[in-house]
Amino acid sequence: MHSLENTLLSYATQHLPSLPQIYTWKFNTALVRHSFEWEIGGSNWYEKTHALKRNASRNWGAAPEQRMALADYAVRVWGGVKRNAPATMQGYVQTVSQGQVPPNHKGIASWSKVAAFSNPNEHAIFDARVSFSLNVLQMIHGDEQRWWFPHLAGRNTQLNACWPRLKTLARQQHWLRIATTDVYSTYIGLLVNVSRKLNVEIGDVEMLLFSKAEDFALAFNEAYPT
Q: What is the CA radius of gyration of the chain?
């Protein structure tokens, strides 16, 4: 994992300065004000998202009775993931409220949002775009052992078109597959080590990987054309 850490550190060092401009995941600030009575400041979506998570984290600790509403907002409204049953969401909230995360990566794109909104200092979102970026980053820039992060279902057609080839190449190159029970802890450990060296928040590294996913798809197609 040391080789991946160095690769991500080098990439983040180069590209993090542009994060406030390239991170463009939007949300309805008026809805947030109406639902939670939070005023979201910031001059761009990067700053607004940090403000949103800080408010959510404070509320998570101060008002436990609102945790289900916060989780629903983080996953279904802000994140756009609408397929979770109420009982599933209740399980995620209960687990995160106990200071834990689910034991394997099933549902990770949803429950990592709950965890990240509960405490963005210790948790970060892991979704299809982040996983894709980590894999392509290694494919293009890695020079030692490479680690396979799981293929998660996503709605981005540009990324979806790349996954089959990416999987085939990873098998041919004998990448090490991360166990389902270790995906999130491996990911968080990687972000913590990189963010500490750059004196940024772990969410900054996550947001960079998220924002660069389509650029990684273009770079992958150029390096490994069909």
A: 17
